[in-house]
Amino acid sequence: MKFLNLCMISFVKLMLISLLLFFMSLYFMLNEMTYFLEWEVVFINSSSIVMTFLFDWMCLLFMSFVLFISSLVIFYSMEYMSLDKNINRFILLVLMFVLSMMLLIISPNLISILLGWDGLGLVSYCLVIYFQNVKSYNAGMLTALSNRIGDVAFLLAIAWMLNFGSWNYVFFIEVMKMSYEMKIIAFLIVLAAMTKSAQIPFSSWLPAAMAAPTPVSALVHSSTLVTAGVYLLIRFNILLMDTILGKLMLLISGLTMFMAGLGANYEFDLKKIIALSTLSQLGLMMSILSMGFYKLAFFHLLTHALFKALLFMCAGSIIHNMNNFQDIRYMGSLMSFMPLTSSCFNIANLALCGMPFLAGFYSKDMILEVVSLSYINYFSFFLYFISTGLTVSYSFRLVYYTMTDDLNCGPLNMLNDEGWIMLKGMFGLLIMSIVGGSMLSWLMFSSNYMICLPMYLKLLTLFVCLLGGIMGYLLSNVSLYFCNKSYNFYKMSYFLGSMWLMPYISTYGIINIPLNFGYLVIKSFDQGWSEYLGGQNLNLKLITYSKINMIFHNNSLKIYFMTSVLWIMFLLNLLIFL
């Protein structure tokens, strides 16, 4: 009963604060207001510790979305985690997670951003290892250590910021953007954002983090942990415009988008497919951000948060009903047994694909049209559109396996739609996944953009999406046949499905060299020269010399007297010499 009270209280409070922040963001947006607050925490002996907060329409809108999604996730968890004896601990961890994200969003100061940044890293580790098995521990360690690289880069950026006499970057970021120190800070901030948002080569932790409970995955992959890096770069977007760093970021994020789209087409784990789709969308946000369109990146960040949280909630409901099976090959024909969940799942999938007039359409279509209009090379253009086609491909493949194919699960699965608490949580996000994109586009872009393109470029997005849908259907039917018949096709699908072997590079590839070096050190030093010249060998030598001495002195009085005479002669000669 206590946990129900905690869940309900948290849900109601977060929802009310979310609505308040949303209306505040509208007020700030209409009046073009920005508040910069300084709070003096401690003042001792003329030394003061000051916390600074920045409130503008962007951070208030983002906070309202984070709180809205987290309130529905907590409501959803009332049923999903009802059998957990430590549900209170789970809810408190989720609330700490949200609080860390709030601190990161409203901070214009690198030190206070670091508090939220490290808070996210620590609490995410606690949530990934929540189920306490070997797989969870390994995934948690990979997540924590990958993010630790970014934390170190962030600390170095704080150290370099000392050159400017303040950590409040908003005051001088535009004025000092051409200085040598600011270029180094920009590189470190980009590195930190890449680790948090899982860009190549730090991508392997994102699918591994699926070991966390599904409500946590819905929160992490929609609006908190992975979006922290994107939000940080939105704040530092001035440093990326027209620089070599921005071009490098465009290449890396484009490859991440392409790699994740390819990998999702060969994956069979339901949650990992959705995780790879998150990685693909993060690459899209980062790439459009590196081109200088930070408002578009923020727009897609918000719309993506809505349908991705819904997608994970639907996946959690399916897994819950399938007795914790996550393999899509064991599913099928779910639309007959779980019609409401299937409807939410399909709408979220269509929003992800960019179906006209759903949330994802407004942001994705605008991004692709702006890319078509921009001065961009062929390779990046190719990555954008092929990745869009791959998104539709794995979405259609997922729908084919889970919704339309024959039912492949065991006979004892009681598939039904009777989880009313979970359904209510999903319906809240369903409405926003339908109307959220149009609402945000009217709010954020008050004046219409005129994007004038030739007919073939206007229709290219639609053509690529249709081609991707056909490819997804063919992959569902043909790929397993070819895998069984052709070993080369199997090797190719294994390479593409394992994210270009990145999980192996991130684990065995990094740890293999230190382990081999450690073995050589132990063999050569600890069990080698240090033993030979140290205690063990000295002990053996003393025992050997003692045995020889015992042979000489054992019952041989003549030898004893002879050695005594020799010692006396040696001592007399020594005295005469001195």
List the helices and strands and how they pair.
Blueprint: H1 2-31, E1 35-44, E2 47-55, H2 57-80, H3 87-106, H4 110-128, H5 134-160, H6 180-196, H7 205-208, H8 214-220, H9 225-235, H10 244-264, H11 270-290, H12 294-321, H13 334-337, H14 339-353, H15 359-373, H16 378-404, H17 420-444, H18 455-458, H19 460-485, H20 487-497, H21 502-506, H22 508-533, H23 535-553, H24 557-577
Antiparallel strand pairs: 1-2
Helix pairs in contact: 1-2, 1-3, 2-3, 2-8, 2-12, 2-17, 3-4, 4-5, 5-6, 6-9, 8-12, 9-11, 9-12, 10-11, 10-16, 11-12, 11-16, 12-14, 12-15, 12-17, 14-16, 14-17, 15-17, 16-19, 19-20, 22-23
Summarize the structure.
The protein is mostly helical.
Features of the shown structure:
578 residues; mainly alpha; 24 helices; 74% helix; globular
3D architecture notes:
This protein is mostly helical and 578 residues long. Among the domains are: 240-497, no CATH class; 501-533; 536-578. The chain contains 24 helices and two strands. It has a two-stranded antiparallel sheet with strand order 1-2. Strand 1 (35-44) and strand 2 (47-55) form a beta hairpin. It is globular and about 115 Å long. The protein starts with a helix and ends with a helix. The mean pLDDT is 84.
Largest sheet: 2 strands, antiparallel
Oligomer: single chain
Helix content: over 70%
How many DSSP E strands? Answer: 2
The Rg value, from CA coordinates, equals 31 Å
Structural class: mainly alpha
Strand order of the largest sheet: 1-2
Shape: globular
The helix/strand series, from N terminus to C terminus, equals HEEHHHHHHHHHHHHHHHHHHHHHHH
The low-pLDDT segments are none
Given the structure, what is the number of helices?
A: 24
Mean pLDDT: 84
- Approximate strand percentage: under 5%
Distance between the termini: 97 Å
